[in-house]
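To whoever picks this up:

The parser on our side crashed when reading a file containing two proteins. I've narrowed it down to the boundary between the first structure block and the second sequence. Both blocks are reproduced below exactly, byte for byte. First block:
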Amino acid sequence: MSRLALPLAASLLALAGCSHEPAPQTPAPAPTPGEPSAAVMPLEIVETPPVETTLDHPDVQNAAEVWLAMIQGAKRSIDIEHFYISNAPGGKLEPVLAAIEEAAARGVRVRLLADIKFYLRYPESVDRLASHGVLVRKVDLRARDGVQHAKYMVVDDGDAYVGSQNMDYRSLEHIQEIGARVRVPEVVAAYARVFAQDWWIAGGQVAAESPETKPLTIPARFTFGAEEVRILPTASPKDLLPAGVPWELPELLARIDGAERTLDVQVLTYRTKMRNGTPWPDLDDALRRAAKRGVRVRLLVADWSKREASLEGLRELSRVPGISIRFLVIPQSSSGFIPFARVAHAKYMVVDGKSAWIGTSNWEGDYFTVSRNVGLFIDGKAIAGQLARIFEDGFGGTYAEVLDPDRKYEPPRIE
């Protein structure tokens, strides 16, 4: 079924256009008669609802549809950086892969970056694309005990997608996910710069391919209806940031510390220790500070967090007055158990109902300090409000389960 982009899109007669700092830009063109307003939306929230659940929002586009539209509309270039690619016959990823092959066949330059560790686990689809003219490189962060965990795409240097969806058939059908499509030039340029640096590094640091270093004009601003929206692209880790792209962690901490009334967070997993056992209290301390000053803090995590490594920190956090934690439990498919699926994998935050974060990082230290990830910060009530509604549907819905800090949990079957 065809979907609209944002609930308030129907109430807008035309988009007021984009004005980015430091100087105003030419407004975006109004849609032609009969053309969906989504065609000129600078920013759209995108989701994946697991099939056979009630988590779908009819006014929010699905990632499978958005990816396909972006790829089929590409005229010059498609740059894809994903953790891995895993396909299945008849799944929703197959049309996406076919569209990538078709784009390469019609002369679009298609480049793909994948994590080398997970390429070794899932080589088939990457090799398939390479055999159809896609330029492929692998990012190797094993020496630093990290991975290329980002999930984003840049098309024609003017259209980008970032979100929690892996390029996996399960992420388009059997996993709850959140992302965003962005058509704001400054923001797209930042993601393109991350890709350029990673492509350069994965290719053995060829000097001719070194990324640009001219200033990026971010954060960017655009007018959405009567509201000015501010958006900031970010990346991790700190020591692998291209020039001009800010580190994600300080931005997250600043927004948590700036919360005045409410703070709602959904992530796959939450841990207060690095994977090597070193304490990592950065986000935990920030949430505690927020609760102490009277902010209502709610955290929604996947049932994969019923494993002890995550439960340790979650139990202690749930005992803090003002902090509520729930699991989001996705029921198994009627077709039977699916490995690494039927889980809530979204990663986003809403602050005071007026600002938000969407990212690819779980809330564990390694994602911000050793692995490649990207994120997007949005200051604007309309978009934050839409994410807030999605959060409420999860936190207050039938799939939510209150965390009991004194209960012994049985970890769910994952593989």
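<<boundary where parser fails>>
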Amino acid sequence: MLTSITLAAACGNDPLTRNPGLELVREIANNRSNETQAPPSEELIAQALSETEGPLELVMREQNKAWVFMLKLEENRGHETFGSAFRQTATMRNGILTATRGFGGDLMSSDISGVMPFISGRKAGEGIRIMRIIGDEDKTRELRLSCKITPGKTMPVKSGAVNTTAQTVTENCQGEGYDITNTYVVDGNGRSLGAKQWVSPLNGYFLTQTLR
């Protein structure tokens, strides 16, 4: 797993403990092979799909290939929060990461209003992305990045229960001493079904993949 955080005792107001599917995906993940660097097999993905309901995401840290299944917990004004049984969450808007929790060095919040219309619209443009990350001494640092968005080729997407056609979109951002490149695979509804997205200096890039 991305971390060894375990599920706490149930609490009525905590969406992480209201979803019984989270325990199932934890059991599925724990039953995988000892090859901790291996991505989930097609069999594990099929099992996760068959034993859960609702939107399901696969989230993987690129630098060590550690991964978790995440189920949708709630939605607030277009921001969807997905959670693992290990008390990690990833919040997305149209598949674009806006916040994480429980990974260490988290992305606390983002303002993607300057770039999302181009990414979701699969069109070229330039905009500002603001990211608030946990830095040294657990202090939040705000990064203001200038980004250029470039649409790419159309490609088939087959991932879990997803079978459609989408278009690649690249977002190159610079500023505050950083030069990052995010890549999305965006469907006709403007949602990223798969992406490589930079989260923070500690976490590097996360790979996200919509399974249902």
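After patching the parser it read the second block fine. The chain has one domain: 15-210. The CA atoms of residues 10 and 17 lie 5 Å apart.
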